[in-house]
Amino acid sequence: MNSRSARIVDDPAATAELVAPLSGPSYGAYSVARRRWRKPLPAIIADAIANCDAVSARLNRGMYAPDREGEAHYRGIYDDLCRTTRQQLEALKAFSAVDWRE
Prior knowledge:
By secondary structure, the protein is an all-alpha fold. The chain has a domain at 39-102. Helices cover 60% and strands 0% of the residues. It contains four helices and no strands. It has helices at residues 12-15, 28-36, 41-61, 71-97. It is flat, with a radius of gyration of 26 Å. The model has no long low-confidence stretch (mean pLDDT 80).
C-alpha cells in the first residue's frame, strides 16, 4: 500500500468561513443601522456617470444589427440610444457640479 494514499491533507480553504461585507447580526442596533443606511448622493451620481461613460464607449465602438432586413429600424434605435446616453451624461455632470444637500 502506498503511504501517500492514506495521508489526510488538512486544507484550510475547506474549513474557511466566507465573510461578506456589512455582515453581522440580523438583530438589534446593527440591523437597524444597516437598514437605515443610504448611499450618499454624490456616490450614486458618480456611479451613474461611470456607467454612462462605459455605455457610451461601448456604443462608440459600434454594434451589429441582428439582421439586414430591419437595419434602418435598428439604426434608428441605436442612434436614439447614443443621443440619449450623451444627454444623460451631460445632465449628470451638470447635476454633480452643483453642491446639493439632502
